Amino acid sequence: MAASGERAESSVRKRRVGSRRTETETDSAVSGGVEGKHSSSDAEKEKPLLSLQPGTFWLTRIVLLRSVAFIYFVAFSVAYNQNKQLIGEHGLMPCKSYLRSVKRYVGGKIGMAAMAYTPSVLWFLDWSDMDANLDGIALLGMALSGFVLVMGMANMVIMLTLWVLYHSLVNVGQLWYSFGWESQLLETGFLAIFLCPVWTLSQVPRRCPPSLICIWTFRWLIVRIMLGAGLIKIRGDKCWRDLTCMDYHYETQPVPNPMSYYMHRSPWWFHRFETLSNHFVELIVPFFTFLGRRMCMVNGAIQILFQVVLIVSGNLSFLNWLTIVPSLACFDDASLGFLFRSGAGAKKAVLEIQSEDVAGRTPAPTKGMHIPNFSLGFSIPVLMNLLSSRQVMNTSFDPLRIVNTYGAFGSITKERTEVIFQGTLSPDPKDPEALWEEYQFMCKPGDVYRRPCLLSPYHYRLDWLMWFAAFQTYEQSEWVIHIAGRLLSNDSTVLSLLDHNPFQGRDPPRWVRGEHFRYRFSQPGSASAAQGKWWLRKRIGAYFPPVNLEGLRGYFQSRNWPHPHIQQNRK
């Protein structure tokens, strides 16, 4: 019995030991499985991403900066080529005279009052050679914007400098810089300052991710631009409500291009479709911005396509190109990746950053990079203006033009009229035998045989202002008489703004007059078109009577304009 009991106890002991060993092995196996899962998860985190993920805006920043830089480059190019003639030492409206008048108005000192009234670096420069100052600002602007455009990188210092330089020109540009897109460029350029690190120059500065607040201020800008344009139309000309505005727009817009000629002759139902589409794009589509990522991208794509159509169909300066810029903020890195080369450069760097973010190894952003943007707060008066039945367009609510109202073509002219400058060598302007020869501007309609120009995004400021002058009187646009006096003296400064001087290499005209004509497109396929005529015109009457140098002496003196003298250096 004793032996039997010992055997039984031994057997029980062995089973217990076996049981403990089994439990230990089981625990080890479970522990090993859990550790295996963790190591597998870590491996997945460490694995680099193969495609860009949505929700980041590194590449968006590069595209935005390059786009803003392109517009700046065009704007400074226009300034370099035209500022001397318009606001230079011998320009039509010298900015030196304007600054002196501002100085007198604020008490005769160049201080904070002068800077607040007309913010410009020109206050601090030597006025003895204003042409050199204007050229220097334009060339520096072209150099900096060209650098950002080519390299795709910038810092706050560069973008702030560009903004200050262009601001300095706009604020002394007077009538010649009175277009709505000047303020739009300044607001867009101001937002671009906050896209960048303070000092670092890199396409993908790892410690300075793009601010989501800044991205949203760009989106808010495109919403305001389109709603402003749409509401001013609905509240404005009746033709926007009865869908007939596009029957006139292509022919009567400021500077038509060759496509305008053909689009004007589209069927009536197509013009109705265009007007309805315009209302849809400007009044409905902007709200897609707030309906999630995909609908926001739909808004961006529609707005860009809409602006491309406008670019193709007319010469509206860089306005439509500029309006594309905030639309680009509707796209993130995943949607813009196709614009960048795979496996190298910025795209590769963004993939690495996103991989590090998934692995939880995102570097802390540098202090001071996320500078708050006040555009959204400043938008309150703009929003109130949009909701007002007395909406105004292209207006700034602050001297720095940080936040502005926008709108275009609230009314459509139904007939196109043009002012044509003519000169004659005849001593008697009333002589029926007098030969009157026409001056031709760079781009605006004149010679009926000349094809409409293709110019956008470049901009001839004088040509645009002549469009406005045509439906005003010369008393309302006195600068027209100033031009006439300069033509009488064969002034090379003003003649450089024109395409054709009929008195080149000859004596200057004795008399100059302005004739008023009504213009309309010729019918494609008609006899007039077969003769090479793009336009048909009919005289309305005199815009201003024949004038000569002696007769203008008192007119010029009363306005403190230097009396022109005949120049030997003729164009």
Q: How would you characterize this protein structure?
A:
- Helices cover 52% and strands 7% of the residues.
- By secondary structure, it is of the alpha+beta class.
- It has 3 domains: 50-206, no CATH class; 210-329 and 373-412, no CATH class; 414-557, no CATH class.
- α2 (58-87) packs antiparallel against α5 and α6 runs antiparallel to α7.
- The chain is globular, with a radius of gyration of 33 Å.
- The termini are far apart.
- 41% of the residues are buried.
Largest sheet, in brief, is: 4 strands, antiparallel
Instruction: Tell me the Rg in angstroms.
Output: 33 Å
The class by helix and strand makeup works out as alpha+beta
Low-pLDDT runs: 1-32, 34-41, 368-372, 567-571
Query: What's the helical proportion of residues?
Result: 40-55%
Q: Shape, please?
A: globular
Number of E-type strands: 6
Strand order of the largest sheet: 2-1-5-6
Provide the residue-averaged pLDDT: 88
Order of helices and strands: HHHHHHHHHHHHHHHHHHEEEHHHEEHEH
**How many domains is the backbone divided into?**
3
Number of helices: 23
Distance between the termini: 137 Å
Q: Which percent band covers the strand fraction? A: 5-15%
Region (Disordered): 1-46
Subcellular location: Endoplasmic reticulum membrane
Keywords: Endoplasmic reticulum, Membrane, Transmembrane, Transmembrane helix
Family: Belongs to the lipase maturation factor family.
